[in-house]
Amino acid sequence: MNKDLISNDIQLDSSGKLIHLLGLEGLSKNHLTHILDVADGLLDAQGNLKKSKALDDMSVANLFFESSTRTRNTFEIAGKRTSANIINVDLANSATKKNESLLDTIHTLKAMQIDMFVIRHKQSGLPHHVAENIDGVSILNAGDGINAHPTQALLDMLTIRQHKQSFEDLSIAIVGDITHSRVAHSDIQALKTLGASDIRLIAPAGLQCDSKQCATIKCFDNIEEGIKNCDVVMVLRLQKERMLEADIPNEQEYFDNYGLTPERLALAKSDAIVMHPGPINRGVEIDSSVANGKQSVILQQVSNGIAVRMAVMEILAGNS
Length: 320
Ligand code: NCD
Prior knowledge:
Blueprint: H1 29-41, E1 59-64, H2 70-81, E2 85-88, H3 102-110, E3 116-121, H4 126-133, E4 138-144, H5 150-163, E5 171-175, H6 182-193, E6 198-202, E7 218-220, H7 223-227, E8 232-235, H8 251-258, H9 262-265, E9 273-275, H10 288-291, H11 298-316
Bound molecules: N-carbamoyl-L-aspartate.
Family: Belongs to the aspartate/ornithine carbamoyltransferase superfamily. ATCase family.
Catalytic activity: carbamoyl phosphate + L-aspartate = N-carbamoyl-L-aspartate + phosphate + H(+)
Keywords: Pyrimidine biosynthesis, Transferase
């Protein structure tokens, strides 16, 4: 489905309370700030995660139809730290392999007293379709096709907030395969909602943002120009699994033209932070020394994923 046509309307009830998390379009600055504040409250002064009882007696099912390391595992850890029962549904051996429809599988799991479903799927809009067709449970979008990845954007915003004073004054560059990146789409939405006015998208023509969301955003095809004086540089992987064979760029050429090297990073502000949702491909979109360098907050993003996912689950459970 064209991502411009996917609506998140059903994620709020009539009083504006979050009942699913499908995407960030339609959520207010207050909604986003509340999620980030709850996540912050789950970290102690040393940045260590607290535990909570918010989902005691509740059950959460992880349904990952695409591969994942960070998102799936941090959802699992977040579920356990909020005292939920969490199950990772073994999709390779489930009845979906016997042609059971996804909705039937979900209704079956609901009959096992599952309260929340975390869904990652290659089809844009799939979590929305599930949310429309099943009552009494919460759906959390863990990445749908090229559409959205709301918890990734929220953990990115938490990470930025930990390093920078306010979103209003920031210059943020997003570099790489924007066309196929659900992360970029959710990050752009989150940044706009939180008030960032200088968002720059850096990509070769074939990988630049092609949705109406980007109509008012500055686009660059030259990384040296786009990165100048930025406070935040977000790097994206070439998502080859979503490209036609013929459109896959040559990796060396791509690195030569768009790879984040120490020389290019030096054009950003000296205290700029480097972010990447992972998985990183060293020597393709980012130089290894930059990924490991002192400006990199890539692993902090991973850790923040737990607090943000705990916060979202607590809010959906009505306990924060
Ligand atoms: C991203 C995803 O799956 O959208 N990864 C993630 O969840 N951390 C980005 C990617 O796959 O490149």
